[in-house]
Structures are given as structure tokens and as C-alpha cells.
Automatic annotation (TrEMBL):
<dbReference type="InterPro" id="IPR036282">
    <property type="entry name" value="Glutathione-S-Trfase_C_sf"/>
</dbReference>
<dbReference type="GO" id="GO:0045174">
    <property type="term" value="F:glutathione dehydrogenase (ascorbate) activity"/>
</dbReference>
<dbReference type="Pfam" id="PF13409">
    <property type="entry name" value="GST_N_2"/>
</dbReference>
<dbReference type="InterPro" id="IPR040079">
    <property type="entry name" value="Glutathione_S-Trfase"/>
</dbReference>
<dbReference type="GO" id="GO:0006749">
    <property type="term" value="P:glutathione metabolic process"/>
</dbReference>
<feature type="domain" description="GST N-terminal">
    <location>
        <begin position="17"/>
        <end position="96"/>
    </location>
</feature>
<dbReference type="InterPro" id="IPR050983">
    <property type="entry name" value="GST_Omega/HSP26"/>
</dbReference>
<comment type="similarity">
    <text>Belongs to the GST superfamily. Omega family.</text>
</comment>
<dbReference type="Pfam" id="PF13410">
    <property type="entry name" value="GST_C_2"/>
</dbReference>
<dbReference type="InterPro" id="IPR005442">
    <property type="entry name" value="GST_omega"/>
</dbReference>
<dbReference type="InterPro" id="IPR010987">
    <property type="entry name" value="Glutathione-S-Trfase_C-like"/>
</dbReference>
<protein>
    <submittedName>
        <fullName>Glutathione S-transferase</fullName>
    </submittedName>
</protein>
<dbReference type="GO" id="GO:0005737">
    <property type="term" value="C:cytoplasm"/>
</dbReference>
<keyword id="KW-0560">Oxidoreductase</keyword>
<feature type="domain" description="GST C-terminal">
    <location>
        <begin position="101"/>
        <end position="234"/>
    </location>
</feature>
<dbReference type="InterPro" id="IPR004045">
    <property type="entry name" value="Glutathione_S-Trfase_N"/>
</dbReference>
<dbReference type="InterPro" id="IPR036249">
    <property type="entry name" value="Thioredoxin-like_sf"/>
</dbReference>
Length: 254
């Protein structure tokens, strides 16, 4: 499958009978769903979408024209990464990505909520730097500090436990992109290992998790996309190699 992003006027590929995710290769929200699909060993097809020149048919699956969207039956879709991922975890429970403890599930949602300001700061720093305020830099580091404190408190390899769970796959796509900020002229967003030793170790461990490794992109690659988008010509198709395999069977839990 090609990583080419389809755009206005392009035909929708024929339905292949599997789950199908509509995504954008550099979108952290779309990556969340890709990682969950991988973690659950599900067979799926991927259709990448140019978000600047959206194909007409994407609105059939995502009324807002956003990604990700999931075609769960031919012609039927749901959208929004959180909605999709909770659906997948309930629909395909063989590889459970959430705790059975209702309190821990609630705590995981709080972890995600407390991280939201850091995500917002990333988008401003990367794509609207002239609007960046000192408070957002503070919010960014406060989010990282809170996340590191949670890792220390839980004392487990991943936030979920011995293997990554939904909370890890929800946060990691942004952590992956945070490392690109110093490369686009934002050194104040660097993740210093002296300050964030535990968090940096966690990030490095997540990079090689089975669900993450084949989809992970380097900071340099993310920086190149950010720069292309800021120049007004987002290079959606900069990855011209074949797409990663959409079927990833594994025998063991991560």
C-alpha cells in the first residue's frame, strides 16, 4: 500500500473487507488509532488523506473532515481517535488495553487530560510560533513534569503496566513529536535528560514497542514536515516508500 495521500478528485480505493482507517501520516491523533490497531493485532487497511485538499468521500466517514476515521463496515464509519480507540478496545477485548479497575481507568483519563496543555503548546510552537506565549512554555514543561511524576508513582515500565495500554498509545504520538521542536528553532522545548531522565527512558522504551516501532518517525522527519507546512506547502508525500504492513500478527502481549 502506498503512503501517498489522496486528495480532491482522487477515487476512494475499493473496500477490501477489513477494517479501514483514514489517516494522515504526520497526524498524532491518527497515529493513536494506528497504534491501537497494531497493539490488538487487527487486520486493517490504511487510506492516507491530504488534509489541505480533502477528497470528497472522506466526509462520508468523518463529517468534520478530520482524521482518524474508522470504516468498521463497508460504507459505515466513526471518527475521533478517542471514540475509535475506546470502541476498538471494547469490540476486540482479546488484547485488553485498559485496566479492569474502574478507578485506574478514571486515573488514566485524568493523566491524558492533564497532558492536554502540553499538546496545545506543541501545536503553537510548531505551527504558530509568533503566537507563542511564555505561559505555554511553562504549561508544556508542567505537563512533562506531571507525566514523569505519574511514571515514578506507578513504578511500572509503562503507564499501563508491564506492557503499553491505551493511555500510553494516547500520549506517545505527541511525545514522539515533541523531540522535533528543538530542530525547528524551539530549544526551550527540549527534553533534557538531566531533568526528565525517567520520562526520556520511557519515551525510548515506547519507540521500540511492537505496536509503535514500524510506524515511528524520527524527530528529523517530523521537523521536515513541520517546516514544509510552515512554508505553506505541507509535504504529505515525503515518505515515498511502501507503507508499513497493515497486518501485524503477534503471539505475545507487549
Amino acid at each position: 500500500m502506498s503512503e501517498k495521500h489522496l486528495q480532491t478528485g482522487d477515487a476512494l480505493p475499493a473496500y477490501g473487507g477489513k477494517l479501514r482507517v483514514f489517516a494522515m501520516r504526520f497526524c498524532p491523533y491518527a497515529e493513536r488509532t494506528i497504534l491501537v490497531l497494531n497493539a490488538k493485532n487487527l487486520q486493517y487497511d490504511t487510506v492516507f488523506v491530504n488534509l489541505d485538499h480533502k477528497p470528497e468521500w472522506v466526509f462520508n466517514y468523518s463529517p468534520k473532515g478530520t482524521v482518524p476515521a474508522l470504516e468498521y463496515e463497508e460504507g459505515k464509519g466513526i471518527f475521533d481517535s478517542n471514540i475509535i480507540n475506546f470502541y476498538l478496545d471494547e469490540k476486540y477485548p482479546d488484547v485488553a488495553l485498559q485496566s479492569t479497575d474502574p478507578l485506574r481507568r478514571a486515573e488514566d483519563k485524568i493523566v491524558v487530560e492533564l497532558f492536554a496543555a502540553a499538546q496545545t503548546a506543541f501545536y503553537t510552537a510548531a505551527y504558530n510560533a509568533q503566537a507563542l506565549q511564555p505561559k505555554q512554555v511553562e504549561d508544556f514543561h508542567k505537563g512533562l513534569e506531571t507525566l514523569q511524576a505519574t511514571l515514578k508513582e506507578r513504578g511500572t515500565k509503562f503507564l499501563h503496566g508491564d506492557y503499553p495500554g491505551l493511555v500510553d498509545y494516547t500520549l506517545f504520538p505527541f511525545l514522539e513529536r515533541f523531540e522535533a521542536l528543538p530542530l525547528v528553532g524551539k530549544p526551550e522545548f527540549a527534553l533534557s535528560k538531566d531533568k526528565y531522565e525517567l520520562l526520556v527512558t520511557y519515551i525510548e522504551t515506547m519507540k521500540v514497542a511492537p505496536a509503535v516501532k514500524p510506524y515511528y518517525l524520527t524527530p528529523d522527519t517530523h521537523a521536515k514536515f513541520i517546516e514544509s507546512r510552515n512554508k505553506g506547502d505541507a509535504n504529505y508525500n515525503m515518505l515515498d516508500t511502501s507503507a508499513v504492513c497493515c497486518m501485524r500478527p503477534r503471539k505475545k502481549k507487549e
